[in-house]
Amino acid sequence: FDPRHYLGTHCYSWPKTGPHRLRFLLESVKDLRETLKKKGSTLVVRKGKPEDVVCDLITQLGSVTAVVFHEEVREVL
Predict the structure, then answer these.
(1) Residue 75 falls inside a structural domain
(2) DSSP-assigned letter for residue 75
(3) In-domain check, residue 7
(4) What is the pLDDT of residues 14-25, one digit of tens each?
(5) Which terminus of the chain is less hemmed in, N or C, by CB atoms within 10 Å?
(6) Per-residue confidence at 68, pLDDT binned at 50, 70, 90?
(7) How far apart are CA 16 and CA 3, in angstroms?
(8) What pLDDT digit, counting tens, does each position of 1-55 carry?
(9) Nearest-angstrom CA–CA distance, 65 and 52
(10) How many domains does the chain have?
(11) What is the CATH number of the domain that holds 21?
(12) What is the distance between the alpha carbons of residues 48 and 31, in angstroms, rounded to a whole number?
């Protein structure tokens, strides 16, 4: 969970993630974790800036050969 997603937007400072969206997100992550657990796997959930968290996770795991990610598309006004 990137703390920046819970701050205001660039325009008008509207929240990027409101309470309903946050509840949906938390319930979805919980359901995914439970589904993976039933299949013998797990889900790693962290809070922080992805550029820091992913680096720390790679260091902890030690055997990572690839990292895949996407960036949020921002509209230029």
Answers:
(1) no
(2) -
(3) yes
(4) 777 778 888 999
(5) C
(6) confident
(7) 11
(8) 888 877 766 667 677 777 888 899 999 999 999 999 999 999 989 999 988 999 9
(9) 18
(10) 1
(11) 3.40.50.620
(12) 21
39 located within any domain? yes
Could you write out the DSSP letters of every residue in 4-73? GGGSB-TTTT-BSS-HHHHHHHHHHHHHHHHHHHHTT-------S-HHHHHHHHHHHH------------
Q: In the structure encoding, which two tokens stand for residue 31, read together?
A: 């359901």
Structure tokens at 25: 């997100």
State whether residue 2 is helix, strand or coil. Answer: coil
Task: Encode 2-30: b = buried (16+ Cβ within 10 Å), e = exposed.
Answer: beeeeeeeeeeeeeeeeeeeeeeeeeeee
Q: Domain for residue 47, yes or no?
A: yes
